[in-house]
Amino acid sequence: MGRFDGRGAIITGGALGIGGGCARRIAAEGARVLIVDINEEAADGNVKGIRDAGGVAEFMVGDVAQESVAAEMVETAISSFGRLDLLVQNAYGGGADSAGSAVEIKPESWHRGMDLLVGALYLGAKFGVPAMEESGVDPNFEETPWEGGGRRHGVPPAQNVGRIVNMSSVHGILNAPRSMIYEAGKAAVIGLTRQMAVDFGPLGITVNAIAPGHIVTERGESMWDEVGNDAGFRLFELHYPVRRTGIPEDIANAVAFLCSNEASFITGQVLAVDGGMTIQLQENIVMDTKNYIAANPDLRTHFDNTEGDTSRW
Ligand SMILES: NC(=O)c1ccc[n+]([C@@H]2O[C@H](COP(=O)([O-])OP(=O)(O)OC[C@H]3O[C@@H](n4cnc5c(N)ncnc54)[C@H](O)[C@@H]3O)[C@@H](O)[C@H]2O)c1
Question: Does residue 245 line the site of ligand 1, with CB under 6 A?
């Protein structure tokens, strides 16, 4: 039996990249998966791949920042799968004018960014949590009486009713210059996750966040192909104690664990899946990589396609 046999799952932004990997992994472990994405062609492609591999999946096209889409995705999961157990809130697509400090960004960019980075996660929970509650514990879950090491009295606590995993970022923990919308949004995801964990823990629903490091996705790959080179990519890898950057499967592994019954005592946490990048002292990294940069003057990274400096000298 798969860990998620019989469960209904929604993965936002599940067509490509990290969400694409999460959808494939959760479906491979038995869940019926609804991908919600604005990219119809890619969503269709991922669904076909999952079905070819023997999984159950479908997709819905929609912008998850819209209240009507959040409501519809939950209705669709319930009507298609009969239940909702897992909600992975991952969709984000940047925006043409999303870079800049508070002085530089436009109010409309701020509102649009926050609606997707933060508002969509609120909406997903607003409609998803009541549906999880109504679905109850999935029928394949073997409820063993909870005795709390012999000290438990009264009614057993609700467990394994639902799982929410919100995608934050290492940018929610550490701040890059001139990235007001993304950094504030991803930090807010951590606050929102903690709040939801407190609110929904008593219902048997856990809520956690993942903070990925640099993950090379299909889109990231083409950005690197466009403006980066091998020496530049190696520079990125040198920032990671494990000396590599991530792939969507690295994040999917962590998401699957947080969605599993084994993780029922973990809630409100932010798990950095970043090869140790955020535990290092920044000033040492800069000094350690100084010689490498000097020895590789032709290195190019995908940052080189941004207009102007990302920081001030
Ligand atoms: N790739 C990384 O290095 C990295 C690092 C840290 C955090 N993240 C976070 O992980 C998540 C996924 O990033 P990714 O790199 O896989 O991105 P991606 O661009 O490869 O994939 C994002 C998916 O979300 C979809 N999407 C975008 N806007 C949407 C919307 N409004 N409604 C529904 N779907 C929408 C896209 O069509 C796409 O399929 C994001 O929240 C991102 O901030 C990524």
Answer: no
Q: What is the largest CA-CA distance in the chain?
A: 68
Task: State the CB neighbour count (10 A cutoff) for residue 227.
Answer: 15
pLDDT in tens, 219-230: 999 989 999 999
The verdict on pTM exceeding 0.85 is: yes
Candidates 3.40.50.300, 3.90.180.10, 3.30.479.20, 3.40.50.720; CATH matching 8-141+159-218+246-276? 3.40.50.720
Residue 116, ligand 1, Cβ within 6 A: yes
pLDDT digits (tens, 9 = 90+) for 280-295: 998 999 898 999 999 9
Whether residue 92 lies in the annotated active site: no
- Phi and psi at residue 131, in whole multiples of 5°? -70, -35
Nearest CA to ligand 1 atom 36: 13
Radius of gyration of the chain from Cα atoms? 20
Task: Give the nearest ligand 1 atom to 245 CA.
Answer: 3
**37 C-beta closer than 6 A to ligand 1:** yes
